[in-house]
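User: Run a structure prediction on this.
Assistant: Running it now.
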Amino acid sequence: MSSVVIECRDVVKSYRTSKWKKLPVLTGVNLEVSEGECFTLLGSNGAGKSTLIRLLMNITSPGTGEATVFGRPCHKLRSTDYYSIGYVSEAQEIPRHFTIQSWLKYIAPLYPSWDRDFADQLMKTFDLDPKKKIRNLSRGMRMKVALISAIAYRPRLLLLDEPFSGLDPLVRDEFVQGILEVTEGEGWTIFMATHDLEEVDRLTDRVGILEGGKMVLNESVDLLRSRFIRVHISLPTDQVARHVEAEFPKGWIDIQQESNRLFLVESQFKNRALSTTQIKELFGEEVRVEFIPVSIRDTFVSVARSLRTGNSLEI
């Protein structure tokens, strides 16, 4: 049975904005991430994703509740614990006077398990010239160097905070492919926070959605794909005015109407026959129904849009 690598219990975090006011960022987060799992934390800008990762790294501390990494409270992590944790952040800066080669040589002694051959292999994988200075690298190349710096010592846990932000599609693809290649078979645990969703389906085993400082959804990708589906309903013209959103099942979210067509996401989908029967009971036998699989990106967008419009969710 896999052991728990990351655990959060009722984690609350606020930042003081003035002498009398605090801004709540995390408002009771609960989650577990198991060994060998790739967990992706989705959320809009300002949802609290980076704060949670900074808390796991002991860059900041929780107000109340507890967060642990490898069973140790994050605020008690020892220097030796960081030998097993890799960290890459969009805001991460590398001293620009170094060359890639001299930078890796500089940080290698900090990690007893640094694998020089592995670092060289990664530079070839990412097509990096070791003699280039950091200051002359594009943002995408600097992110690749940051990733090498974080995984060349073969950590057991890799924390990625918005790793794809600002990367062009080709570099993003190379970055993701690099992560997939080097972690395959290693049994590493990955915890990734992002709002760039194009690559989530390729990487992740489980998804959490953080909105307003709370975890509103946390489950496996396989379960999400099986129970969320987009539904297009074509109504007879004379039926359109008879139906209002209050009559719709609670599992329907992100409901939109255009003329005589309804577009929605069903979050408790079981099978097409059952859903079709339910729809015809609501709208009559003459309706036409189309079911369309949704990506993790579409699921997140639908959940976030429903939350922002103030709809109560039954997901």
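The radius of gyration is 23 Å.
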